[in-house]
């Protein structure tokens, strides 16, 4: 297998794994909106999957897929095959490192030993950071960056040409229209979640209260209060559609190498 084929295989496998994870997160959030479960992030999604027959094997496969995705994002940020600007390359590298950590935890859980850590972990590391002099402002800056990342998703959902890197011309006109619509809803939902998580992080810094910090799962859980779960239900559907969008990307994205 040559370099281009290897990069394409890694990217498509990784995008498919990311899509499955977000579909699981969406289903968990939908159950939380109905009051029958707790919303969670990728860790909770994999934990719920592990309870199924051959669950650990499935978690391991997804972990390997997320590892492939992480390596592809790191490659994209460093080698820059898509000729992106420095800011976009930084995002690629950062998301690659985040997914690398999640992937290694899933692989360790599936094939070695131990448990996947669940629950809201944001207050713990926020407290660790805020215990250092002047770092509280870095926590606030991190919150603004996370919130800004969410806002960029909202802008992308309503203004970007989603088929810049997608071969959507292979689809029929009506199918292509619906894929774009559903993808925009999914991207917007993910943006809202990141915006809420960033806002909680800024609040934790301004109030010097680490307990106010929320990770993705806890941010989703916080949305259950307003409007009796309807808001969380809508976001849950959106996250499921974001997973669907990544499956579309796994099939139709143009992968440069």
Describe the 3D structure.
Helix 3 packs antiparallel against helix 4. The relative contact order is 0.17. This protein is an all-alpha fold and 257 residues long. The chain starts with a helix and ends in a 5-residue tail after the last helix. It has one domain.
Shape: globular
Q: Give the helix/strand class.
A: mainly alpha
Distance between the termini: 13 Å
- Total discrete domains: 1
Key words describing this protein structure:
257 residues; mainly alpha; 9 helices
Task: Record the SSE blueprint.
Layout (H helix, E strand, L loop, with lengths): L2 H31 L8 H9 L4 H25 L6 H26 L10 H9 L4 H25 L13 H34 L9 H7 L7 H23 L5
Helix pairs in contact: 1-2, 1-3, 1-9, 2-3, 3-4, 6-7, 7-8, 7-9
Compact summary:
With 257 residues, the chain is an all-alpha fold.
């Amino acid at each position: 297998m040559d370099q281009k084929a290897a990069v394409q295989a890694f990217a498509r496998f990784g995008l498919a794994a990311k899509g499955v994870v977000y579909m699981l997160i969406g289903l968990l959030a939908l159950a939380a909106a109905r009051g029958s479960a707790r919303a969670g992030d990728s860790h909770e999604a994999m934990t719920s999957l592990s309870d199924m027959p051959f669950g650990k094997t499935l978690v391991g496969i997804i972990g390997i897929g997320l590892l492939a995705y992480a390596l592809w994002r790191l490659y994209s940020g460093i080698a820059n095959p898509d000729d992106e600007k420095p800011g976009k390359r930084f995002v690629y590298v950062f998301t690659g490192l985040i997914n690398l950590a999640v992937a290694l935890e899933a692989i360790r859980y599936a094939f070695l030993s131990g448990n996947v850590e669940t629950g809201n972990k944001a207050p713990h590391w926020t407290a660790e950071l805020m215990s250092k002099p002047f770092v509280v402002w870095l926590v606030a800056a991190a919150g603004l960056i996370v919130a800004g990342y969410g806002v960029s998703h909202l802008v992308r959902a309503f203004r970007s040409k989603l088929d810049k890197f997608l071969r959507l011309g292979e689809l029929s006109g009506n199918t292509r229209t619906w894929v774009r619509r559903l993808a925009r809803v999914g991207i917007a939902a993910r943006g809202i979640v990141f915006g809420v998580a960033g806002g909680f992080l800024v609040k934790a810094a301004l109030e010097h209260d680490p307990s106010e910090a929320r990770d993705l799962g806890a941010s989703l859980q916080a949305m259950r209060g307003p409007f009796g779960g309807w808001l969380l239900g809508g976001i849950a559907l959106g996250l499921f559609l974001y997973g669907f969008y990544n499956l579309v990307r796994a099939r139709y994205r143009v992968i440069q190498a």
